[in-house]
Amino acid sequence: MKLSNLAKRLLFVAWAAPLGWWVISSTLQVVPKSFGMVYPGHIAVILIILTACYEYNRMLSIFYPVNGFWLSYLWLGAQFVLYLWEAASFPFNLSIYVLLILVAIEAFIWGRKNMRRRWVRSSLLFSGTAFLYIAGISLMSFYQEPFQSMFRKIGTNPMLSQMGIVTVIASIFMCDSGAYIVGSIWGKTHFSSISPKKTIEGSIGGLVASILVCSIMWYFFSNPMLPVWLGVVLGILIGIFAQIGDLLVSLMKRYFRVKDASHLIPG
């Protein structure tokens, strides 16, 4: 196990965990209530998605240095504002049409010198932007029903008001850490050419870690009306999809021929 890499992860967690807990749980209203209920958690999701968009566009720029990929920031930002603005009623299908138009404009203006790869860049830009939009909206939906009713409120302390979101994030983090630690110590059987360092032992370790953490937190913080086995199912789903997402990132890094997908977040 590379201690330098592990040390970077632990150092990141040391400051990110308490800050993240406050951001997730804070009920501070960051905009006028006439606009909508917007908490620091919503703003954090937007910043994370825009940062991910920056990192994706940075990799995309390796193949297409002359580009207008900044258009994706405008579209994502507009979609998040419309999502949080309670008075807005812009149909989603029109938003997709707008994205398609922006992608076409980018391809025809900045990609005119490379006709053969014009549609490749268009598909990469569209799929990446659409995926980030889905990820962002999914994260912000944790602050709404039905997810909120799946976990009970603990007292009146706002710092304990979002244990459901904490449960999901903790399960994802422990899945990644469990896979990394188990794979580094006991991993011998490689299972994917996409990421040769990933092993079956590590994958199982990550899945088990996700199930354990999610099941324990579900037992203590879930709505008493819901069955205990749902926590196990949620842990399995998180463990599976977290690792699928990790493989997709590895596939993306291989496609763009880069070592790290992000220079900002370790691991």
Write a structural description.
The chain is mainly alpha-helical. It has two domains: 1-27 and 152-267, no CATH class; 31-144, no CATH class. Helices cover 66% and strands 0% of the residues. It contains eight helices and no strands. It has helices at 3-25, 40-63, 71-84, 92-110, 118-140, 163-186, 200-221, 229-256. Helix 3 (71-84) packs parallel to helix 5 (118-140) and helix 4 (92-110) runs antiparallel to helix 5 (118-140). The longest helix is centred in the last third of the chain and has 28 residues, at 229-256. The protein is globular. It starts with a helix and ends in an 11-residue tail after the last helix.
